[in-house]
Amino acid sequence: MTDAEVHSIEVPRTARYFVCGSEHPSETWFVLHGYGQLAEPFLKELRELERPDRRLVAPEALSRYYLKRGTGTVGASWMTREQRTSEIRDTLRYLDLVHETLAPASGALTAFGFSQGGAAAARWAVLGRTPVARLISYACPLPSDLELERQAARVRALRWTFVLGAQDQSIDRAAFEAGLQRLRVAGCEPELITFPGAHVLDSDVLRGLG
């Protein structure tokens, strides 16, 4: 059999996102869930971030799947290594579109991402059309594929915050430190927040971030 030719086509599809908080906020937080999570229960874990003048927006990743065969429990993923470039582009366009749907009453924008959602949030903050003021990457290193020098002005304008649990066994510590160093070389001063827990959302940390 001869090798098959690869073709791609863009298709319209339906995505969902959840919103809570002020209808006329002074600030908006886009909160991106981790691998295998769904947006609505993730949003419920972020009650410490709620403020009267803040809106929380939780988009759900486009790729849903069954977490365990036979259980019916569903999770979602922002991307895999398969057709990686296309999935990144689709995610950026999706998040931009959600923001445009909510604008102009959105206020200053923070992108908050937990675990795999941290990588999606960082890429959006640097590569998306939407002007993000602050990036909070919780339990996730800076994506190694982000070419910081190509978006130097935007990278330096961002307020960068990283959160890491001392007992987090899922993090590649070398990659995490390398990402912080890359930002320093790019002219940024990333903020690092540590706590004694594992790969979890910590209430005290969330309260401090909020």
Helix/strand order, N-terminal first: EEHEEEHEHEHEHEH
Q: What's the total helix number?
A: 6
Strand order of the largest sheet: 1-3-2-6-7-8-9
What structural category do the secondary elements indicate? alpha/beta
**What characteristic shape results from the CA principal axes?**
globular
Measured as a percent range, the helix fraction is 25-40%
What is the arithmetic mean of pLDDT? 94
Low-confidence runs: none
The appropriate CATH architecture is 3-Layer(aba) Sandwich
Report the strand count.
Answer: 9
Q: Could you name the CATH homologous superfamily? A: Alpha/Beta hydrolase fold, catalytic domain
How many domains in all?
1
Largest sheet: 7 strands, mixed
CATH class: Alpha Beta
Radius of gyration based on Cα positions: 17 Å
Please supply descriptive tags for the structure shown above.
Rossmann fold, 210 residues, two-stranded antiparallel sheet, 7-stranded mixed beta sheet, alpha/beta
Structure description:
There is one protein chain. This protein is of the alpha/beta class and 210 residues long. It has one domain (17-209): Rossmann fold (3-Layer(aba) Sandwich). It is built from six helices and nine strands. The mean pLDDT is 94.
Summarize the structure.
By secondary structure, the protein is an alpha/beta fold. It has helices spanning 39-44, 84-102, 116-127, 152-157, 173-185, 203-209, and strands spanning 17-21, 27-32, 54-59, 63-66, 74-77, 108-114, 134-138, 159-165, 191-195.
